Amino acid sequence: MTRYTIAVLPGDGIGPEVTAEALRVLQAAAELFGFGLDTAEYAVGAAGVAEADDSLPPSTADGVVQADAVLLGAVGHPSLAAAEGRRRPEAGLLALRKLLGAYANLRPATVHPALRHASPLRPELLEGVDLLIVRELLGGLYYGQPRALERDTAVNTMRYSVAEIDRVARVAFEAARGRRRQVTSVDKANVLEVSQLWRETVTRVALDYPDVRLEHLYVDYAAMRLVSHPAAIDVLLAENLFGDILSDEAAVLTGSLGLLPSASIGDGPGLFEPVHGSAPDIAGQGIANPLGAIASAAMLLRYGLGQREAADRVDQAVAEVLTAGARTPDIAGPGEAVVGTREMGERVAALVLGAGVS
Fold first, then answer.
1. 68: how many CB neighbours lie within 10 A of its CB?
2. 133 closest CA partner among 209, 274, 243
3. Is 306 left (phi over 0), alpha (psi -120 to 50) or beta?
4. What span, in angstroms and rounded, lies between the C-alpha atoms of 86 and 82?
């Protein structure tokens, strides 16, 4: 039997709750498809600060680099909102991405027909929405040097090299080949020199993919397109800051951040996490939506372990549980029955195993 090692980082807030359900579904998929999972849990974010006064403790760093894939819950806690340096939970996440060499973030956004009521957009605009955002994750303003904060001025530097743009662009074009063969590259080339390099490099990479159509959009128009004609977008490619903003905008299409997964891939083990934050206001109540974490587990199977058939099974189970009417509070419409975090996970796991939903 093939066995895989999964580093599990539950994190903060609702992270442990939704991660537990993702693991439940992963174990169901492993049982069905005949492979083994060895899991090891590590602290990160505020949990890391509590354990080792470090949002990415050395023991966590050692564990993740030895794993086949990393499953993360969420990071962040109000008590550390003013923390600095390595005690800031978000600093642990940025350090984790850099440690793993995870330069490409994949965020799919698909609107399930049964949940069109949950989106603020008109139902007719949501017909056929199935897009993938590919965000560069290790460059741009988040990592650029120099950076400084003084009394009355602040500096952040947006910087990209051809090599950094080339490698993430190829991820987008390869993904498009398995979809509708269209890449929409986002920049601000009419203002920023960095964006001019971005556009030139992506255009050059496109020559290696003659079967994929490339279009360039300025970021402001791309933001408009996402809400005015989202079905026209297949794969959207963006640098770090633009991708961060646009992927959160795309999340609105689905009706809830709780539904959305992500995969961060690159040179080392992949990092898989739901898009939502730690939501400390609802932590411990058993009402958080675990479907984003479960869908992230499907991406872990697909991109982290190469278990594509198992990944498809999990995605199918998520779609089936929604069709059957299971709803956590964030996606429940008027008169719809509400289930809790654990019950939603149990229902998806049962469908993975072919047990159906009662």
1. 17
2. 243
3. left
4. 12
Which residue(s) pair with 104 in the sheet?
136, 265
* 41 dihedral zone (left: phi>0; alpha: psi -120 to 50; beta): beta
Q: How many CB atoms lie within 10 A of CB 296?
A: 26
Domain boundary among 230, 254, 278: 254
If residue 107 lies in a helix (H) or strand (E), which one and from where to where? strand 104-110
> What CATH number is given to the structural domain containing 4?
3.40.718.10
The 10s digit of each residue's pLDDT in 162-207 is: 999 999 999 999 999 999 999 999 999 999 999 999 999 999 999 9
Does the pTM of the predicted model rise above 0.85? Answer: yes
Does residue 113 sit within a domain? Answer: no
Residues marked active site are found at 142, 188, 220, 244, 248
What would the two tokens of residue 237 be? 């490619």
Digit-coded pLDDT (tens) for 224-250: 999 999 999 999 999 999 999 999 899
